[in-house]
Every structure is written in C-alpha cells, then in structure tokens.
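Re: [help] complex structure
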Amino acid sequence: MNILRDLSDRFYGRGAYSVSVPPMDGALQPNHRLDAARRLYQGESPDNLCTLGGGFIFSDGAQLFTILDNEAARIGGHLPADVLAMCSFEGGVVLILADGTLWTGAPATLRPLDVDAKVQLAHATAAMMDADGSLIVAIGSSHNPAEDWSRDLMQRRSAGSVWRVSLVDGAASELASGLAWPAGLITLAGKIYVSEAWRHRIISLQDQSVVLAQLPGYPGKLSADGQSGALLAVFAPRSQLIELVLREPVYRRRMMEEVPQHLWVAPSYASGKSFLEPLQGGGVRQMGILKPWAPSRSYGLLVQLDSTLQPIASLHSRADGKRHGISSAIRQGGEWLATSRGSGELIAAAVAGTVLAGADPAAAATAEAG
Amino acid sequence: MSSSNASHQHDRGGRKPPRPSSIGQAAQAKQHKQFSDRLTELYYRVVPGHLLGEILSKNWIDNAAPFLFLLLTVGFFGANVEGFFEPASATELVRLIGEFGLLVLGMMIVMVGGGIDLSVGSTFALANFVALACINIFGLPVGVAFLAAVGASMLVGLANGLLVGYLKLRAFLTTLVTLIVVRAIVDMLLLAYAVDISAVFVDNDLWYAIGEGSIGGIPVSAFLFMAVAIAVHVFLSRMRTGWRIQSVGGSRRSAHNMGINVAGTVCLTYVMSSAFVGMAGFLYATRLSSVGADTGIGMEITVLTAAILGGNSLGGGRGSALKAAMGAITVLIITTSVIRMGLQSGSGQAVLGLILIIAVVVDVRWMKNRDKLLNSVYVSPTFFELPKTAVGAGTPYAMNDALRDVRLIGLGEVEGPEDVIFDRDDNLYCGNRHGDLIKFFAPDYTHHEVFAQIGGHPLGMSLAQNGDIYVCVGGMGLYAVDRSGGVRKLTDETNRSLFSIIDDSRLRLADDLDIAPDGKVYFSEATVRYEMHSWPVDSLESRGNGRIICYDPATDKTRTLLKNLVFPNGICLQHDGQAILFAESWACRVNRLWIAGPKAGQRETVIEGMPGYPDNINRASDGTYWMAILGMRTPALDVAMKVPSFRRQMARRVPHDEWLYPNINSGCVLKFNDAGDILDVLWDEGGENHPMITSMREHKGKLYLGGISNNRIGQIKLPEADQNWTGAGSYWGDKA
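Output below.
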C-alpha cells in the first residue's frame, strides 16, 4: 500500500514529491523594509549580532565590531579563524571559530577553552547561554562545516545535533541529534527552541514538538525580541525549482559533481552577481526591470515572532533588493539590527507596531498575556 | 582543464574548487557517466517523445477513443458471433447502419449546437406512418412519399426549434414533451388508418428496391447515409452555417456577442435533425412496410448512446459526421450481436446503458483534462550535450567594459527592438512589441514616428535593393515595408513536411533574414513547435525544431532548405555572396550554408562551443561579421541539458516563471571572420545598460544595439571602423 501510495505520489507530484512552497502571506506579506533600512556598516560577511552590556557586538569574518557614533569600531585583534557562532553573558562573550576552537571572556581578553572532542565545533551554527551558565551549541551537520550549508541541503542530510557544553571544564552532553541543520537557538519561558532549517520549522528541544512549521524559507538564528517575543533570521528562500532539484536525485548528483558550488541551483546568501548563475524564467529583465516577485535563489527575510513563536510581522528584501541572506538580528532599543550576508551590511530598521493591522485582537491579547 | 568539470573555467567569486575524490574513482565515474550519457542520448534519439504532445494537440485525437472502441467491438463480436462476417448478415447489418446512422447524424448536429433531441423515436414513427400512408392509402409516387415523410418530420423539428431556440425552453424537457405528443398523434393515426394500410399490397418496384435492394452489394440505405454523412461533414467543417452551429454549441454567450443569430441557429439544428430522422423513417417504411405501434420506442436512448460513444460532446461544440458514424456502427453491432448471441431479452438494453455511462464519464473526463494533459506532455526535452566552453581572461571572450559608454536612443520609448536597420538616408528603423515599425530620424535619432503598423512583433530586418525593408514578423511570417510605410506580405507558409504531425507549413516564428544578390530571401524559423512568446521554452527542449527557409520573389515560392536545426536565429549573407552564415542559438554554434558556387547546398560548422547563445549576425565594415550573444550559458543549465528527465519534470511540476532559463540577462557582441575566428568581444560587464542584446548593426562608424526585451537602442562609436560604410552600400553598392 505504501509503495502504491509512493508511486502515485511520485506520478502526480503529491505528498513527499510535492514541490509547492508556502506562500508569503499574512504576517509574511512582502514589503521593502529591509531595503529601506539604514546602513550602519559595510563589510564582507557580517554575522552573529548579539547584545553586550548596553550595546551590541557582531563579527565579520575573523574580527569583532561594534558601532560607536555611527562608526564601526573594531574590538580586539584578529582572531585565528572566522567566527561561526557567538553569544554573550554578563561581562563577556563566547566565540566558536571555524578552526573548531571555543574562546570565552571579555572581547579584548579572550581565552581558549578545551571542549570535549565529541562536539564538532568547526561545524557549529549557533550558540546560546542557558540559564544555568552552561553553553548550548547547535552543530549544523556532522558532515559539512557551516559555510558548506548549501551542500548539506543538497545532500539532503539530517545530521545536526545540539549540545550542552560546560564553560567550566568543557564537558559536553548531547541534547538532540538527527536534526536537519539546526541553525538557531532561543530560550523562551524556560524552554529551549531550535530552528531546523532543512525542515523549515522551529521545534521545542525537549520533546521535539513543532511550534512553527511550513516557513517559506530556511530559518536561521533566533534572538530575543523585547520581553517575550523572538526574532527569526531567515537566511535563504525556498523555491519550487529548488524543491524540485531536491527531489531529482540524478540531476542533483550530477550538478554537485560537475558545477562549482556557488553556481548550483541551490539557495544562496546572494545571487545575480555572475552571469554564470542559474536564471529562472521570471528573473528575465523585461524592459530593463527585474520584477520584485521574480524567483530568486536569495532573499532577505526577518520575522518577528510572538511569545508562542508565531509570526506577527516581517521585513523583506525581495528579488530586486540587495539585503539578502539575513544571518542574524537583535533588538536594540526601538530598532531592529540585522546583518545581511548578501550585501555585507549591518542595517537598522525601526520596530513596527507589534500588532498587525487587521490581526486577530484576541490572539494579540494572548500574545501579550503570554 | 579538468574535463569532468562542467567546463566553465570562469569562476569569479568561487570560494572553493570542487572537491576532487580519489583520481581512480573520478576516472571511473567519468567513464561510467559518459557511457550512461551515450545511452540516454541514444534513447532520446530513437524515441520520438515529442510526438505524443503533438498528437494530443490535434483535433482528430478526439476520434482515437471511439475508433479504438469500434475496433474492440468488431473484434469481440466478430470472434464470438457465428457468421458475423458472412456476406448475408454483413449486408443486413450495413442496411441497418444506413438507417440508424442517419438518426445519429441528426442527433449529432443537435448536440453540436448545444442541445439534445429526445423526440427522434416518435418523429421516426411519424415519418414511417406518413410514408406508408402516402404509398398504401393514397397511392402517391415514391418521391412524393419521401418528401412527405421528411416534411412531416421537419415540422416536428421546427416545433422543437421554435420552442427551444426562440422561446428559450430547455431542450431536454421540450423534446421530451414533443416525444409524448407526437407519439400520441401517431397512435391516434394508427388507430384510424392501420387497417387501411395493412390491407393494401403495394406494387411498386422502386419502393421495394429502396427497401431491400443493393447496388454492388451495398444497400441503398447505406448509400444514402454515406452521401448525407459526407454532406454533413462538409457542412459542419467547411461552411459558414456549420461553423456557426459549432460556435453556438461551444459558447452561446460568445456566439451571441459575435453577432451570430443564436436562436435561428439552434432552431436550424432541430429542423436538420428531424429531416434526417424523416429519411430514416422513410427507409424503415420501405424495408418493413409495417405500422407496428412500437416503432421507434426507446430509440432516443440508443441514438444518444451512439452519438456520445462516437465522441460527440454532450456539452456542445464538438462533434463530427465521422464520430456519429463510428458511434452508430459500434452501437448497432452491439445491439444486434447481443441478440444474436442469444442473451436474455433486455440484456441488450443493459449493455447499452452501461456503455452510455462509461462513454459519458470518458467524455467528461477527457474534456476536463485534455488541456492539462497536453500542457504536461507537450514540452518534451531531449538529451543535448553542449561542447565545453570557457569565458573570461585567457580566452577569446575576455571581459571588458567596451559597451559601458553606450549612448541610449529612445530609452523608455521603444519596447522590444529586436533588430535595427538603416535606410539610405541614415534613418533608423526598429520594431517593437506592439507590432509597429518605428522610424528614428537622422541625424540625431531623438525623435521618432510609427512608420508602419504590421500587427506582429518585427524581428530580423534587411534592406532590399529597391529600398523596401524586409522584416520577419513573429507569428506572421515574412513581410515587406515599402518606403511610404505600406506593408505587404511576402510569405507566411512553406512546403509541409510529409511526416510532420503538427502542421509545419505555417510560419510560426520567422526570426532573421538576409537577401542574396539574386533577390532570394533566406530566413530562419526558430521553432515550429512554439509560438512567438514561448520562445525560451524551446531552449528547455533543445530539440532541432527550427528551419532555414528560402523565399524567391521571382516565383513567389517558399521552400524549406534545412530542417531540425536547434533554434536557428541570425542569418547573414557572406561578403562574397556565396554562402549564408546562420547561428543556432541553443546549440551555441554558427554554420555556413553554401548557396552558390561548387559547394552549393552544403553545410558546415564555422564556430562551435561558444560560452553564450548567438543571435543575429550582420556584416561589419572590415569584411568580418558582428554577432550578438543574447545570453550566457550557465553550468547548471548545461548539466540539465544532459538530464532530460529533470527538465521534463520541471516542465510538469514547476510553473513557467520558475523554470531554469538560459541566462538571457547578460550578453555581449562579438566579431568573427569567415574562418570562424573570434576577433573581438564587446562586453558590458555590469550589464546595466544592455542586459540583453539580440542584434547589432554597424552604420557609418557606429554600432547600434537592439534587444528583444529591452526598452532602448544602444549606440557606440567604432573609431577604427570605416566612417562611411553602410549596410545598404555593402549589399547593393553605393547610391547611384
């Protein structure tokens, strides 16, 4: 029966063979707010925004920066390798670098910490301090380092894991495994939630129950938004063509063998930079104009979530925009700050009213009460 | 250069090279891949997958299911009924088919007009009675009896037609009422005259000849049926009124809006139907001379079954005499054979009912899904491996900014200038997507006018000796625009291929042309399978769908010279006039076709393995040629070309806007010589001013750029070129 169902699904393109992508509607209705946002910093690949004291800090490659008087200010020296994940605690930060080392302390005086070798820190995607002072680390995949995320997606892996690491002695214990590219972590009301990118959803770590599913993109880093909500950085869009490629093993294998990775039919932080990149029909310039709705391998999407991790507002940069590949975001006063890997910028946008016009007032009330 | 790599050496921004596996493995994998590629290639070469879609796009495919069912019926009963094929029984069957077929023809016409006629049985009985009464009681001639029978029936049809057509009553109820009323009339008449009719013995040879005679073994009724069927076929498919009936049946509202007299047309269908019923009733009378009370009872169901089984749509608008004939034959074979097989009485009706249900289901599902099915199977990609290529530094295609300082002409004022051309007075002409030819006035080209309205998107253009502009018009064919702006058609069709399923005589996408010294026009037709605006879809197939065609103005004849070309696009006459150069876009190559001299008729490849898709080719002032590259190859698409199954799934599963396209957002212009050497390449590396270039034309030291999805014409200076050179002069000599 299952085989029959499978065959009929394959024939009709249903079930597991469906390439449909959830529409961007409701709270996710497209706008141009990321493109309209103020630029604070222009670099190569800013990432890992986190609050520190009253200010904030972010990484760009192997360096740390903050913004003072609208000027980027470097903090500390050159690190031995690119920063993969960062989180802060009172008086200091924890850094995980691409060479697999973990550093902790005040940004200017970092010390390495030996961590249990079971944890593949070189594949880390996100880190978070837990209430008890230990560190929660998300490992995207046991097969591919963080930079190789599109390869991991194209290999259809679900080899990610989440670990608890003691910052005292570096001892580690596995909290979850078999996740499809866990890329963001957050604690809300004492519970840990993980964004599972390749399954387009956010799950609760304890019971692996799904709290938000069917996202139109690949969810990445999570951060607190005000007292009770959260911000979700969606680092790449889903598209029907990519969903199709994911279901066509022959083509996918040959593409991975024969085509350079940045020219794959795969999601990306940025697109349209080379004429060797794949182009889709709607992306053809007509009369000199690229339509905002054009299918694109990259997209900018920052989602504001309520206390139950349901979307209530969103900021977009569409196909005709540049601020794609939103890698991290935080709330800083009345503004949201976000890093765009696509354009290499740090940008700031005013926080919108938390209740959407036309949204269900009862739901909003619940959100506030929660 | 690693050959297992997709052959794209240009790797700007690539962070990592592809990971090499161990060398032995890679070599093995490569060999394996090549072998499986060859198998795939062979498969797609042998299996003509595109024919399925083409067959489904034909109207006659509606006949396939009924025809198959007819064959099955003949096969089954031929094997199971004793003596099925014996002359005597076969002749009897054919005689019945003649009668029954006329009834089904009538029903078919009513159905095509969007109605239904349930009164056939009663009308049949009435005609039978009238014919017998004329002969037996009044002793009238056979001809008069025939006319009386048909006339009486037509009166019933007229009643139906007036009620349904003009008073807009429901066809089903109205004809049901007529069925009952006419039956009652016949019963009353029978009560009064049955004895008179039965008592008389008719002595009329013609009467019996019609009823029982044959001509060369074929019964008279069958002849009559064939004649009527052919007439109906011509009427429905070739005549104005027939087309109107189909329009009314297809959509009453649209037919009304188009000015068709809907009521009259509907009325006509009922009158015609009843006339055929009258003929059938007359034939029945001559055959049996019987006035039984059960004549024609239940006939409407049998007739309706036959009409639907033949593939005539209950919904109206679709039907043909052939379908009616197939349905009639099938149903008659079933009903008579069921009786002859000795099944219980009533089982014939049961079988018929069952078939009716199945036929209705098939009809409804087919109507609903035919277009969906066609959409999902029409695009039929094939295996297509492009030669390796390279672009960027160290290749002839090194990047530069030569097109950056382009001057823009008509920015935002022209939409889709595929090609540009100049007359002898230096005025510039281009087409636009609204179907006009636009004239920009020399010398500064700042103001323009609509020079000619053609109606289709003008593509490639050439200047004829007398100053006319010859232009390929998408969807229309080859046209000429004279110096006063008058438009005249040169040709819109060529010779039809013998074995082509789709009609390839019409020109679908004439693309570019050039004119030989003897006046012959050589032009390319990019694809015979797609319309103008679906041209990128053809790239998904990369099958050889295109042609090179020659039009000879002297004889007004058009001939196809070369077929199965992969999107033939730009065409240019060589400087020596001996050959034409033409580009095959999706194949990324340029060919030469000799048209004169010792090699006339031969074809050879000039340039192969380009990194982009070539478009128009035009002459340059220094004896070489300009060629536009409309878009660049992308490695991901190159791989997809070798995996046709992926492209087929893409065409089926993914909406059009999401399909993988050639990268037609960026292009360049290059220069090559007769030997095929790339001499120069002009890029706009940022791609801001000229995202897509489909043509370029050199004129007096400047190069003008056109693009089919651009809203501008570009002009760049060529300081080193001959500042007095013009295309017109190059082709036809300097102005006298």
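Chain B touches chain A through 55 residues (CB under 8 Å).
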